[in-house]
Amino acid sequence: MGQDIRTTAEAHEDAAMPRAHVVHTDPKEEASCGDLTLPAPAAQTPVERKSAARWAYERLILYIRNFEAQLDNEHEVAMGFTGADAGVIRIEGVGYYDPDIVTFYGSDPSGGRNQLIQHVSQLNVLLRAVPKPQAEDAPRRIGFRLAADLEKPEAGAETE
């Protein structure tokens, strides 16, 4: 009892909505895993009309933003590579190329510039907290800039 009565259309719409769920060893930490809800402008385009690259890009932004929200002022987000001996790059930019490429821009610990171009079927991202360079006053937060980009209406976006 106490359930809301919904139309068939509402049930189908709810079933199509992306969902995220986290269970943590410490229940208090579950809230720190963050909000993985897309902002309204990004959510206007139905998932089935997004390329695999765009859909992966949008969700990566949410994970990066939430990870950065847990960092202190002495650390920035970096990306560790899984299955390779390439090390870690400080994430300075993220992009996508429809229909299926995601790109990460950054620098390694020695300051060398890096760009990782990856097919979405091979996407594995390990987010790491790395000490920020000493010369900088404040950590640079790419996740918040990326999330702000999701808030902008997409040029030529179709709405239903």
Q: How is this structure best described in words?
A:
The protein is an alpha+beta fold and 160 residues long. 28% of the residues lie in helices and 22% in strands. It has a domain at 45-148. The chain has five helices and five strands; from the N terminus they run H-H-H-H-E-E-E-E-E-H.
The CA-CA distance between the termini, in Å, is 33 Å
Structural class: alpha+beta
Number of helices: 5
Number of strands: 5
Which value, in Å, is the CA radius of gyration? 18 Å
- Mean pLDDT comes to 79
Which sequence of strands runs across the widest sheet?
A: 4-3-2-1-5
Strand content is 15-25%
Helix content: 25-40%
Low-confidence stretches: 156-160
| Major β-sheet annotation | 5 strands, antiparallel
Return the string of H and E elements.
HHHHEEEEEH
**Coarse shape:** globular
Q: What is this structure, in a nutshell?
A:
By secondary structure, this protein is an alpha+beta fold.
Q: Which helices and strands, and how do they pair?
A:
Blueprint: H1 8-16, H2 27-30, H3 40-43, H4 52-69, E1 75-80, E2 88-97, E3 101-107, E4 113-119, E5 126-131, H5 142-150
Helix pairs in contact: 4-5
Keywords:
single chain; about 30% helix; 5-stranded antiparallel sheet; about 160 residues
